[in-house]
Amino acid sequence: MAWRRRSLLACAAALPLGMAARAQTLDEARVKARLTLTLARYTQWPAASAGAGSDALVLCVAQRSDVLALAFGELAGQAVAGRPVRVRTSPPPAAAGCHVLFVQDGAERDAAALLAAARGTPLLTVGDGDGFAARGGMVELVNVNDAMRLDVNLRALRSARLELSSRVLQLARQVRD
């Protein structure tokens, strides 16, 4: 099972995106959704947090795209550490009850408020906006030569008491401390 997850992460990170057009395609959105789910599988939450012991893992998506909402919606019911994934595509401003939060590029106004509200809580934040990790997000998905890469903000992860597997960190394009 572990080899399968490693393979999925490696494939997703290197998957060509074919981004000739700027509009996000369903394939590109699915890559981002699957990669976000894989990151959740490689995240360790503090034992006392809701992320570690609740019945479902709640993945919230702050998006401006129906295509992205559809792609993330396809993840509902999959499992992370034996827990079913529940997807919410309209998180409240504080992202209360979320374990993973994906913030789409173009939702910057929401991103600032969501990241501020999440600071210090065990909430894995992933985004695809330019500079997301530099602004306090934990993992930024970056398109490099039509392949998805990761930039990781270790300070934000530590502040939230989250740990990301060293295997993920090895795949990252950039790890900021």
Walkthrough of the structure:
The chain is α/β, with parallel strands linked by helices and 177 residues long. 36% of the residues lie in helices and 24% in strands. It has an eight-stranded mixed β-sheet with strand order 3-4-2-5-6-7-8-10, with helices on both faces. Strands 1-9 form a two-stranded antiparallel sheet. A hairpin with a 2-residue loop joins strand 7 and strand 8. Helix 1 runs antiparallel to helix 2 and helix 2 packs across helix 4. The radius of gyration is 15 Å and the shape is globular. The N terminus is likely disordered.
Integer average pLDDT: 83
Silhouette? globular
Main sheet strand line-up = 3-4-2-5-6-7-8-10
| Beta content | 15-25%
Overall helicity: 25-40%
Largest sheet: 8 strands, mixed
Low-pLDDT regions:
3-22
- Number of helical stretches of at least 4 residues: 7
Radius of gyration computed on alpha carbons: 15 Å
State the distance separating the first and last CA atoms. 31 Å
Key words describing this protein structure:
single chain; 7 helices; globular; two-stranded antiparallel ribbon; disordered N terminus; 36% helix; 8-stranded mixed beta sheet; 177 residues
Task: Please describe the topology of this protein.
Layout (H helix, E strand, L loop, with lengths): L1 H13 L11 H16 L1 E2 L5 H4 L3 E6 L3 H8 L5 E2 L2 E6 L11 E4 L4 H11 L5 E4 L11 E6 L2 E7 H6 L3 E2 L1 H6 L2 E3 L1
What's a concise summary of this model?
This protein is 36% helix and 24% strand.
